[in-house]
Amino acid sequence: MVVSTWEMTRYNAYRWRCELSLTKKIALAVGMACIIGLAAQIRFYFPWTPVPITAQTFAVLLAGVLLGRWWGGTSVAIYAGLGAAGLPWFAGWAGGAGYLAGPTGGYIVGFILAALFIGHFTDKYVKTRSFLGMLGVMLFANLVLIYIPGLLQLNLWLSLVKGEAIGFYQVLVMGALPFIAGDVVKIVAAAATARVITPRQPYNRAAETSSKRTDIG
Question: What stretches of the chain show up as alpha helix (H) in DSSP?
Answer without folding.
Answer: 2-18, 22-39, 56-67, 71-84, 97-100, 105-124, 131-140, 147-160, 168-175, 180-197
